[in-house]
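quick one before i forget lol
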Amino acid sequence: EFVNSLERYDPSTNEWEEETVAPMPTPRRYVRTAALDGKLYAAGGVSEADNLAAPNLVERYDLATNAWEAVTPMATARASHAMAVLDGRLYAAGGHNDDEDGHTSYLTSVERYDPATNAWEAV
């Protein structure tokens, strides 16, 4: 199932609840998220529009404005990858991508996003 909703975990109640926020513009599965500088980034994944090939799409959610916006896409399209934040930058590592014929490529590359320059670079 492709989804565009957001859920929040409350450790004080040990429960998940669906957030009432603007829906993510591009419904995806196998997308990875990370919080950086008070914003939530959703990177890669698989969308119906891409015929199951992973997009390099990155969208950013701002809680203050309750709005999503597209930022510079990753250099490499990937799904089921690792995402992490370190020293004010967002890292995307590994994952996989499928070509038009359904052949899966497993990735070993790592790239990092700098929100100050809105740019990705290989690591």
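fyi Residues 89 and 114 are 5 Å apart (CA to CA).
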